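*Target chain*
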Amino acid sequence: MQFADVKNDIAFRKIFGNEQKKEILISFLNAILGLEKERKIADVQILNPYQVPIVLGAKSTVLDVKAKDETGKEYIVEMQVTDKIGFAQRVVYYSAKSYVSQLNANEEYYELKPVIFIGILNFVFLETPNYLSRHLILDTQTQEHKLKDLEFNFIELPKFNKQIHQLESLTEKWIFFIKNAENLEVIPENVDDKGLQNAYLEADKHLWSKKDLEAYEYARMRETDEKAEKMKAIEIGFQKGLQEGLEKGIEKNKIETALKAIQQGLDNQIIQVLTGLSIEEIEKLRSQLS
C-alpha cells in the first residue's frame, strides 16, 4: 500500500467528503466529539462545501468538508496546514456564515440548528498542551452553557506524538491516521473500526484514478510553493529589520558624536564633516542642549 498525505487538500476531501463512504466521516465525528450511545451520529448528508455570499458583493467561502446529521446539526471539518493571518477570525466567520445561511425568510429563529467546527491544524494554535480541545460559549462566572449553537474543536497535530503501539482510543487512532498515514505501508493491526479501515483504503493511492493523482500532486506543489513564499517573506522581513536596526544604530552614533562635538565647542561645518548630518539637524541638537 502507498498511502497519501491525508493533510493534502485533495486527499482530505476525497477521504472525508465521500458520499459513498459516509461511514468514514461518521466514525471520525463520533470519535473526535466523544459521542457515545444515544448521542452518536447515525447518518450524515455531505453538503456542498461552497458557501455563497449572504448579500451581494460579500465574501464567498469554500470549506473542506461540510455535513449535516439526522438531527439537522451541521459540521464543518477543515484541514489547515499553515498558520495564516486571521485564522481565528476565519473560523468564526465560517461557522457564523453556515449558521445564518440555514434560515430562510419565512422561517423562525428556533428552527436554527447548531454548527460544530472541527479544525485539524498542522501547527500549534493554542497555549494548552492538549492536542484536542473543545471551545464553547459559557458564562464566565457560573460556566452555564446557554448559548449552545456554536462549538469549536481543534486538533493540533504537532502536539500528538503517540506511536502505533501506544494508541488506545479510536480518537487517538484517527489522529494518528491523519498525521502519519503517508509514512505507513500497511493498515495498523490495532485498527478495528470499519470507518477508519475504509479511510485507510481510500488513502491508498494505488486505488486512485489518474485524474485524482494529478490533482493530488498539483496540490502538493502548490503547498510547497506557498511554504517557499512564506519562508521568503520571513527572510525578507528579517533582512529588512536587520537593515533598519543597523541604520538606526548608525544614526544613533552620528547623533552622539554631534552632541559631544557641540559640547566641545566645534562649529557646525566641522560637525557636518564629522557626522554627515545636515546643518539643520545639527542646529536642532544645539537647541536641545541649550
